[in-house]
Amino acid sequence: MLAGLTASAGTVGDAYGNALAETTIGLYKTECTRAGSPFRDGPIRTLADLEEATSAWVAWYNTERLMHRPGRRPPAAAEAE
After folding, report:
1. What sections of the chain are H helices per DSSP?
2. Residue 7 scores a pLDDT above 80
3. pTM of this prediction?
4. Torsional class of 11: left (φ above 0), alpha (ψ -120 to 50), beta (otherwise)
5. Do 31 and 37 touch, CB atoms closer than 8 A?
6. Do 47 and 41 contact (CB within 8 A), yes or no?
7. Could you tell me if residue 73 is inside a domain?
8. 59 assigned to some structural domain
9. Which domain holds residue 65?
10. Cβ-based neighbour number of residue 52 at 10 Å
11. Span 66-74, mean pLDDT?
């Protein structure tokens, strides 16, 4: 009955990568694009507004956010050690 069927996902473990991506996208939507976000100077009216907020969020996420596993330190500090 299953002969000739192919998997809808890639290799084993892809689901974990997808879950990580979905979590990061959720954080982005909550922290960056919501009204009152510290990454925005006002309403998002243009693509440039969204790109500016996204750039600020990505820079913060990659260098300044506190990570639990390395002792509540920013990624840049943990990586430097």
Report:
1. 14-28, 47-63, 75-80
2. no
3. 0.65
4. beta
5. yes
6. no
7. yes
8. yes
9. 46-81
10. 15
11. 83
CB distance 53 to 40 below 8 Å = yes
In the numeric block, the tokens 């954080």 are attached to 27
Hey, which residues does 67 pair with through a beta bridge?
Answer: 73
Asked whether residue 39 is assigned to any structural domain, the reply reads: no
Number of domains the chain is built from: 1
Whether the Cβ atoms of residue 1 and residue 15 lie closer than 8 Å to each other: no
* Position 38 in a domain: no
Per-residue pLDDT of 33-56, as tens digits, reads 888 889 888 899 999 999 999 999
Neighbours of 53 (CB within 10 A): 21
Q: Are 66 and 73 in contact (CB under 8 A)?
A: yes
Mean pLDDT value across residues 55-62:
90
Q: Using CA atoms, how far apart are residues 68 and 40, in angstroms rounded to an integer? A: 26
